[in-house]
């Protein structure tokens, strides 16, 4: 059982309208994307200018592998298309226009105006956007419909968003939810400055201790501790409903199957530190606390491929040595919580049964043997509670 967090008095909810409906958001996003194409057209930009060196339409290197029309860059996230504003589009579905010949990496002999064979342009080549409509050099492939390439890609991206939202909507019924989870607003471009909340230990060089993210967005954050229960249905539910979350793992209950958590990370969850053996930190010496935290940092970096930036002390118990050790091990923040979720109930730190902007919700990897319900029962309760109160579930790392 977790120790209840004592929250600052006078916490108030910001008056912020609830997130717009998911379907309307996708349609707005589609109009924005297609509007960007119109701006490109007005500016006289064509697809042939994608990537440096594309305008030169350099011949492909002779040793590059053969390409067949049919796969746009990516498919599994392998390629991106630079677009207006500097952001990438993820891998997109699509096929080459019918009737075009197979593209190969080797360029044929072409003659310039004097009848001499043209040589490949020297100098840096464009990024390797492999597959139709790009040649191996990154230039637009020969015969590609330049006037429609960019708009076609953007339209395909918008279609993909709409299909994803349709699948998410269908998943709502299968997971016995009355409404789809609200979509979180776009995270802030600049993360808020974090300071230790009133009543918690602070000091120079110590990471801030927080129970709530400073934001006016109607967004809360779901965090799951320990790692004992490894329910595949949890992964499926979070994937189908597209719910972001963060996991704080303890090694001694996670080590039997880190593959489960690697899958979780690949699907978009983030993995953070919850110590090696889940001991109450203030009962340990500084050296022992440092070993608990640093060893788990090393383990998670090895097993997951990413070094955590957060440390949550077991039971929420900590002292100054805990914070000093966490800082030395590379933790930037110590997030606690404002509410705790079980399979059948919510427990509230404030006691008013309400969420507030930036609240951090705690729960655990538990099963029916521990709390009379499943992980999916817990998620269903959290989603219903947040949605009824007009809150979206966001990703903690987007704000912290």
Q: What can you tell me about this protein's structure?
A:
By secondary structure, the chain is an alpha/beta fold. The chain has two domains: 20-177, no CATH class; 182-398, Alpha-Beta Barrel (TIM Barrel). Helices cover 30% and strands 10% of the residues. The protein has nine helices and eleven strands. The strands form three sheets. Strands 4, 5, 6, 8, 9, 10 and 11 form a seven-stranded mixed β-sheet that branches. Strands 1-2 form a two-stranded antiparallel sheet. Strand 8 and strand 9 (346-348) form a beta hairpin.
Count of helix runs: 9
- Report the principal-axis shape: globular
| Domain unit count | 2
Give the helix level as a range of percent.
25-40%
Supply database-style keywords:
two-stranded antiparallel ribbon; about 10% strand; TIM Barrel; disordered N terminus; about 400 residues; seven-stranded mixed beta sheet; 2 domains; alpha/beta
């Amino acid at each position: 059982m977790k120790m209840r967090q004592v929250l600052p008095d006078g916490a108030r909810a910001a008056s912020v309208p609830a997130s717009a409906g998911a379907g309307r958001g996708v349609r707005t996003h589609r109009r924005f994307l297609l509007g960007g194409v119109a701006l490109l057209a007005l500016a006289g930009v064509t697809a042939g200018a994608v990537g440096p060196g594309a305008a030169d339409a350099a011949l492909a290197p002779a040793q590059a592998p053969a390409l067949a029309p049919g796969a746009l860059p990516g498919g599994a996230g392998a390629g991106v298309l630079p677009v207006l504003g500097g952001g990438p589009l993820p891998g997109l579905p699509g096929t080459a226009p019918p009737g075009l010949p197979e593209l190969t990496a080797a360029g044929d002999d072409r003659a310039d105006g004097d009848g001499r064979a043209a040589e490949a342009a020297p100098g840096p080549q464009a990024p390797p956007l492999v597959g139709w409509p790009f040649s191996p050099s990154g230039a637009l492939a020969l015969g590609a419909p330049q006037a429609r390439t960019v708009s076609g890609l953007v339209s395909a991206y918008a279609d993909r968003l709409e299909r994803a939202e349709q699948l998410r909507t269908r998943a709502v019924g299968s997971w016995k939810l009355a409404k789809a989870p609200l979509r979180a607003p776009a995270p802030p471009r600049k993360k808020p400055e974090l300071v230790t909340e009133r009543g918690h230990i602070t000091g120079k060089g110590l990471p801030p201790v927080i129970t709530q993210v400073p934001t006016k967005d109607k967004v809360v954050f779901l965090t799951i501790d320990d790692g004992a229960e490894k329910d595949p249905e949890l992964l499926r539910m979070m994937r189908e409903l597209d719910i972001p979350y963060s996991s704080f793992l303890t090694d001694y209950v996670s080590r039997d199957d880190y593959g489960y958590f690697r899958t979780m990370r690949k699907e978009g969850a983030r993995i953070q530190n919850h110590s090696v053996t889940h001991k109450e930190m203030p009962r340990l010496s500084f050296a022992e606390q440092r070993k608990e935290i640093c060893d788990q940092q090393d383990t998670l970096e090895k097993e997951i491929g990413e070094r955590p930036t957060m440390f949550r002390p077991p039971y929420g118990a900590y002292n100054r040595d805990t914070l000093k050790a966490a800082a030395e091990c590379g933790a930037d923040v110590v997030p606690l919580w404002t509410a705790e979720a079980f399979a059948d109930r919510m427990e509230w730190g404030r006691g008013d049964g309400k969420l507030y902007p930036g609240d951090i919700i705690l729960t655990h990897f538990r099963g029916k043997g521990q709390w009379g319900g499943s992980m999916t029962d817990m998620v269903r309760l959290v989603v219903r509670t947040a949605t009824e109160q007009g809150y979206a579930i966001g990703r903690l790392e987007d704000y912290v």
